[in-house]
Design brief:
This protein is of the alpha+beta class. It has three domains: about 15-100, FlgT, N-terminal domain (Dodecin subunit-like, 2-Layer Sandwich); about 120-275, 2-Layer Sandwich (Double Stranded RNA Binding Domain); about 275-380, Gyrase A, domain 2 (2-Layer Sandwich). The chain is about 45% helix and about 25% strand. Helix 2 packs across helix 4 (about 100-115) and helix 3 (about 60-65) packs across helix 4 (about 100-115). The chain has twelve helices and 14 strands. The longest helix is centred in the C-terminal third of the chain and has 29 residues, at about 245-275. Strands 9, 10, 11, 12, 13 and 14 form a six-stranded mixed β-sheet that branches. Strands 4, 5, 6, 7 and 8 form a five-stranded mixed β-sheet that branches.
């Protein structure tokens, strides 16, 4: 009986160490929303005090927001201990127990993948025909960057966009695709994600007494540029703005459209990033200078490694093997593991280029035009700092 009591005591200690009790307040338009917001606050408190340090982790706000897109898996138990309905809102006090193990695992995985991640807001200047439209597109980009900054996310400054946009046009040459232009520009700026504003519509109505009514709509698409995966298309539309000053009304209209477009694009990105916690981060691997038999032998190793997942179907693309996969550990660990597997099949591979989660491998001495492009882009960026 004594041993049974000791066992129960030890189990209780382990249970207590693996969970954190907190009391939080939640507010919302109704009871369900208030409770959900309280549970989000409970997870946020434990994340910031017991799991990650806001000052020590790069992109802490992004990691936090990804975690908070879904809190169900981190709440072990919860109880509403007080609730107060108000005419315009509902308020609850909740006692919750947050599970440390899954929260620590997901937060640390995200920290190793998202530490250096940046967003870039882009439009294709070749598609904009007038100086007035150019001004509005530029203004929309600035406002969406402002939204990212306000939310605490890292982004590429507009002055970098201005410095590199002509370079991207020069590289892609006669290619008129706006997506190819945006992908090249984001690559040059070392931005893993980009938001492409592909259409900005401004509607205008004349009212009495020379008053103008103006409304703006922004159509944009989000992309994971490392894997060329589109996250979705969103439409941001602001309210009608009234003014006798046309430029003032246009800018206010674009302000609203940019805010809603930014909010929706970030929503897509956060839910996309959360899925990495389940299956690993998506990577695009490129292998240069190896033949089909060597690729088959290398694939045998990767298929038997539980850290690799996804389709794992290599395809030939523009002179190299392209492999899209997921990986559960750090990019550094991946590079080391792949070079080790390569040696096992008689290959000596070096890391030729790493752009976020897009990594190129090949024999030492292999030269890539992308390396030269990045070097020139970095030189251009240094001139503005």
């Amino acid at each position: 009986m004594r041993y049974f009591a000791i066992s129960i005591f030890l189990i209780s200690i382990v249970w207590a160490q693996s969970a954190v009790p907190v009391e939080v307040t939640g507010r919302g338009p109704d009871r369900a929303s208030a409770i959900q917001n309280a549970l989000r606050e409970a997870v946020a408190q434990v994340l910031g005090t017991r799991v990650l340090s806001e000052t020590a982790v790069q992109n802490f706000q992004l990691i936090k927001d990804v975690i908070l897109t879904r809190t169900e898996g981190y709440i072990r138990s919860s109880e509403v201990i007080q609730e107060t309905p108000f005419p315009d809102r509902y308020e609850v006090r909740v006692r919750a127990t947050v599970s440390l193990s899954p929260l620590e695992s997901d937060a640390r995985s995200l920290a190793q993948w998202l530490g250096g991640l940046r967003f870039m807001v882009i439009y294709d200047p070749r598609r904009v025909k007038t100086a007035q439209d150019t001004m509005l597109y530029e203004y929309a980009c600035e406002r969406m960057c402002e939204y990212l900054s306000r939310e605490g996310y890292r982004y590429v400054e507009k002055r970098v966009f201005d410095r590199l946009k002509d370079e991207a046009v020069k590289i892609i040459g006669a290619d008129t695709s706006s997506i190819n232009y945006a992908q090249k520009l984001a690559f040059l700026a070392d931005a893993e994600f980009f938001i492409n504003i592909h259409n900005l519509i401004v509607r205008e109505e004349q009212k009495a007494m020379n008053i103008l009514s103006i409304k703006a709509t922004i159509e944009s698409k989000s992309y994971d540029n490392c894997t060329a995966e589109g996250l979705g298309t969103v439409v941001g539309e602001g309210d009608w703005q009234l003014s006798t000053n046309k430029l003032e009304a246009q800018r206010k209209a674009v302000d609203g459209a940019a805010y809603y477009a930014g909010e929706k694009n970030i929503y897509l990105a956060l839910h996309y990033l959360f899925e990495w916690c389940r299956s690993g981060a998506p990577f695009e691997l490129r292998f240069y200078g190896i033949d089909e038999d060597q690729m088959d032998q290398l694939m045998d190793r990767l298929l038997n490694d539980p850290d690799f997942g996804g389709q794992l179907e290599p395809v030939i693309s523009a002179g190299y093997w392209r492999l899209n996969c997921t990986y559960k550990r750090t990019p550094y660990r991946m590079r080391t593991q792949i070079r080790s597997y390569a040696r096992q099949v008689g290959l000596s591979l070096s890391t030729l280029l790493q752009y976020g989660r897009q990594i190129s491998f090949g024999p030492e001495g292999t030269t890539l035009k992308e390396v030269r492009e990045r070097a020139r882009a970095e030189a251009l960026i240094r001139r503005i700092k």
